[in-house]
Every structure is written in C-alpha cells, then in structure tokens.
Task: inverse folding
C-alpha cells in the first residue's frame, strides 16, 4: 500500500508529528471540510501553539485562495502561510488570464506541486475546498509528503485522529447546509475536547454559488465538551 | 543600464549583500573536530592512568570547550495594544549575554516608517538589522510611489516584506517582532511576526521571554476602544510585569504611541522603576569614613633611583608642512 507521507523527518507516532524545528510556531490543529448539497462546508479550531504555549487563541486557519476556493492549514504556520500566499498569487493570475473562476482541482494541484517538490523542507498538511461551476463543491487533501487526494470529506491536523470514527459514522452524501454545519461543529468540538493542541473557538465557512458565509462559535457555546 | 549596476572601476571584489551564514557550517565542523579531539584526549588520559603514569597535568577533556560562543540574545518583554486613537507599543530595556546584563538601557522599539514602529525580541543584532533593512526598503518604496502622506504606506507591505525575509532564512534570523502602526487602508493595526516567518494580526499581544507575565496583564484588563491614557498605563503595567517577574527582562519601560493621524509620541524612558540614584543619595556615610589626607602618619621614607636608567636623547624636528 502506498504511504501518503514519504518525508524522512515526519513520524506520526512521535511527540513531534510534523517534524517542526525548535521554536517553530505550529497550528497543532483540527481541520475538516465536507461537501453538501450545493456547496462545501469548512471548519477549523482557532489555536496556534509553540510547544506547550498557545501563541494565539483566535487564529483564522480558513485561508482565502480565490473567490470560491479556500484552504485549511495544519503544520508549520510559517510554511503554510508562505505556500498559500504563492497559490493565491498563481490563482489571481490565472483568473485574469482565463477570464473565469479557477477550478478547485487546479488550486489543489498547484498546492500539491509546491508541497511535493519541497517535501524535505516543508511541514505542511493542507485541505483545499471550494466550489466551481464545472464540478460543484469539492474537497482535496494535500498531505505531508505531497500526495493530493480527492475525498468525500477531508480531515487534518493532530485532532483529526480523534474524530475519524465519528465522521465515518455520521457523514452522509447530500446533506443540507444546516446539517453539514452542525456536523462540522460537533466533530471539531469532540477533537478539541481530546486533543491538547486543538482548542479555542470553532470557525466555519460555507462556500456556495451564491457566496461565502463565515461563522464563529465561542469556546463556551460548543455542542460538546470539555471532557473532565 | 543604470550606473549603479556597473562594477566600480578598480574594485576587485564586491561583497555579497544580505545576511551571511558562512559561520554556521564552520561552527558545525569546529564542534565536530572538538568532540573528536576531546574523545582522543580522554582516551589518552585513561590509558596513562591505567599504566600508573601521572595524569595530574592532563586536563579532563583536553581543555576543549563544550559549546560554541553564543550570540547576544535579548531576554525581553515586548507588548502592544490597539486603542481608540491608535496603537501603543512597549518594551523593557535590558540586553543580556547569558546570565550577564550586557546593557541596562537599550532601545528595543525600532523605527520602520513614519507611521510604523517595531518592537524586537530575540538576537539583538538580527532585530536591529531586519528592521533597518525593511525601513530602508519602505522609504525607497515611498519615494518611488510618490506617496503623499506617511499613512499612505501600508502596514501589510511591511508585514509581507518582513515575513518573506524571515521565511527565506528558515528561522536562522532570530527576530521575533511586534509591528504596530496606522495606515489609510485599515487604520490602527498590530501584528506579531515569528522568526520562521509566520505573521498574525492581534488587538493586543506580547512576545519575548517575559511575554507570559505581560500577556496575563493584557488578558485581564484589555478592552475595545480604550482611551490613550488608559492604554499607555496598561502597556506600562504589562512591561513592568515582565521587568519584575522575568529574569531576562529589566531596567526601564519604553513606550511608543502611534496615533490615527500618524503622529508619534516616543517616550524613552516612559517609566524608570529601577532608578537607584535616590537610594544611593539617601545613604549617609559615617564621618569616620571621610578621612583627611595625612590621617595615616608617615614613619619613614627612602628614595631608591632606578639602576642604569638613562633618558633617551630626543631631538625634536619640525614637521614639514609645505
């Protein structure tokens, strides 16, 4: 079976699963994206940490790439900011040159090319999600080694390990927007309750043909947690 | 072609621009050589001891040091907040070299542009150099674009320039920065930039070794739309918390207020909680300590001239000036 991650510095079982350098700021994270009937729903926690210290409790990990395409960042904050800036730049040029909205798979492949060709020096796990008029709402997972996987829903970050079972059991194709948002909030709340490097608030983003909508749920109004 | 791109006549070598990392690989080689030499010296010592020879004059480890000389790091408290009328930045003034205080009143709030200032933590040389480099780039950009007013220069430009620079050097440039300022596009803004090149926007933040003490104060008392006087007092309290509770921070508190219209109020020092002058002045010394000359009696004296001393024969010649 093909392994998704090839980089020698990455060991998912170690206490430092992203192979971060000492003192590097990371988004020890829970990120999640899933398509629903008419668009995609993205969700993320808001904690950014450096070792055991949370450098920010209100980070926005849902990052703009183009009008209907966003990415969710996990791994090194510096690396993921740098590469999403590059993809954003490429897509803005493409939009001008072709005169139409870029496809989600184009964004995902641009991201994959950067992650794959710099796999030895990057620690980045990125989910690209968005809507385009050709294929509708889609979700791509660009993992540490540079594989690009089209998935029916995508999970990422250290907190994702705690909610694979929940998502496998609760996710259904063709959910409504409200059902999708409720599931994303629930799943991320469960991950935040069990994963020390995820926490803070839950941010969601709804991407549809009509437009995008942001939503923030404060830590004391989550559907689940904390666990005592 | 511009005249500036042509090499100067007679110049044999133009030094490369930017930071230089030649010493990183040199230090690694040096450290490896030292480790090998230490192991050999230790083996030799053990061998001598086993054969009953005298090992006293042989130093353990062959006298090789355990580490490379370290760069000067500023254990620091820096903080900044956004208030109703702009941004307040604050910093302590201690620079350390290991356990030693290298400088009691150093400047940690750097000029970046007329509407932007930047607090620096990390290696002192790196924060100085990074802010100076970006300040120079932004001034050239301002002139190139013929920007009418200082606040036309955007904060976003400065953040992008600094984070790209730090990202390029992959964390080897140890500069942890808090950038504060105002611009026409987005008003008062505050950013933190980490050594690896990540940046975040905040309403209030702190960095450096004293950041835990400082952020505790900010978390407990910051609120939106504060008045200037309250904002300055809050940042002073945050920095003072670092000065008194973090060993890497100390001495005075500097403050820089950047107002929405671009006016800057740089207070250096803003607070001097460690001024020892009044305490020293208050010490009254015993009159018995003030001894007059001649208090100790001279019992005997003797003059011994230096043997064989001769004065050199000096001829003074006027310098030729015409």
Result:
């Amino acid at each position: 079976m093909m392994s998704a991650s090839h980089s020698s510095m990455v060991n998912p079982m170690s206490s430092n699963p992203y192979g971060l350098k000492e003192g590097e700021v990371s988004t020890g994270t829970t990120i999640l994206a899933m398509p629903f009937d008419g668009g995609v729903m993205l969700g993320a926690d808001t904690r950014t940490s450096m070792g055991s210290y949370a450098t920010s409790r209100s980070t926005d990990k849902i990052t703009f790439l183009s009008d209907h395409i966003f990415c969710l960042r996990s791994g090194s904050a510096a690396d993921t900011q740098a590469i999403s800036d590059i993809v954003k730049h490429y897509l803005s040029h493409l939009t001008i040159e072709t005169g139409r909205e870029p496809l989600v798979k184009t964004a995902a492949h641009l991201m994959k090319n950067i992650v794959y060709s710099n796999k030895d020096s990057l620690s980045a796990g990125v989910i690209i999600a968005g809507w385009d008029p050709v294929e509708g709402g889609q979700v791509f997972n660009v993992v540490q080694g540079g594989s690009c996987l089209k998935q029916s829903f995508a999970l990422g970050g250290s907190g994702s390990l705690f909610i694979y079972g929940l998502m496998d059991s609760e996710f259904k194709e063709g959910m409504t927007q409200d059902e999708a948002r409720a599931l994303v909030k629930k799943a991320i709340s469960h991950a935040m309750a069990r994963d020390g490097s995820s926490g803070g608030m839950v941010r969601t983003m709804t991407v549809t043909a009509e437009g995008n909508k942001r939503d923030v749920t404060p830590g004391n109004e989550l559907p689940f947690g904390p666990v005592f | 072609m511009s005249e500036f791109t042509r090499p100067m006549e007679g110049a044999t070598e133009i030094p490369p621009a930017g930071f230089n990392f030649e010493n990183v690989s040199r230090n690694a080689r040096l450290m490896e050589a030292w480790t090998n030499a230490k192991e050999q010296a230790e083996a030799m010592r053990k061998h001598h001891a086993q054969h009953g020879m005298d090992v006293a004059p042989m130093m353990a480890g062959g006298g090789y040091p355990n580490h490379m000389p370290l760069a000067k790091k500023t254990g620091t408290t820096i903080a900044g907040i956004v208030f109703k009328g702009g941004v307040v930045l604050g910093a302590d003034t201690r620079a350390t070299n290991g356990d030693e205080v290298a400088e009691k009143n150093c400047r940690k709030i750097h000029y970046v542009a007329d509407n932007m200032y930047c607090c620096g933590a990390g290696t002192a040389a790196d924060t100085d150099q990074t802010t100076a480099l970006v300040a120079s780039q932004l001034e050239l950009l301002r002139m190139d674009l013929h920007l009418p007013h200082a606040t036309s220069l955007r904060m976003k430009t400065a953040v992008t320039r600094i984070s790209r620079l730090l990202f390029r050097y992959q964390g080897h440039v140890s500069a942890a920065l808090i950038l504060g300022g105002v611009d026409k596009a987005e008003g008062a803004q505050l950013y933190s930039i980490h050594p690896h090149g990540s940046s975040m926007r905040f309403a209030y933040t702190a960095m450096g070794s004293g950041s835990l003490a400082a952020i505790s104060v900010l978390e407990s008392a910051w609120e939106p739309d504060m008045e200037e006087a309250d904002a300055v007092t809050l940042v002073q309290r945050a920095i003072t918390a670092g000065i008194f509770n973090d060993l890497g921070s100390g001495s005075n508190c500097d403050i820089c207020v950047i107002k929405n219209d671009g006016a800057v109020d740089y207070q250096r020092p803003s607070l001097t909680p460690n001024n020892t002058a009044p305490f020293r002045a208050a010490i009254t010394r015993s009159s018995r300590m003030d001894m007059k000359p001649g208090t100790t009696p001279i019992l005997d004296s003797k003059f011994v001239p230096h043997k064989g001393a001769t004065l050199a024969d000096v001829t003074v010649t006027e310098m030729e000036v015409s």
The interface with chain B takes residues 21, 23-25, 48, 50, 53, 55-56, 59, 76-79, 81-82, 121 of chain A (CB under 8 Å). The longest helix of chain A spans residues 77-98.
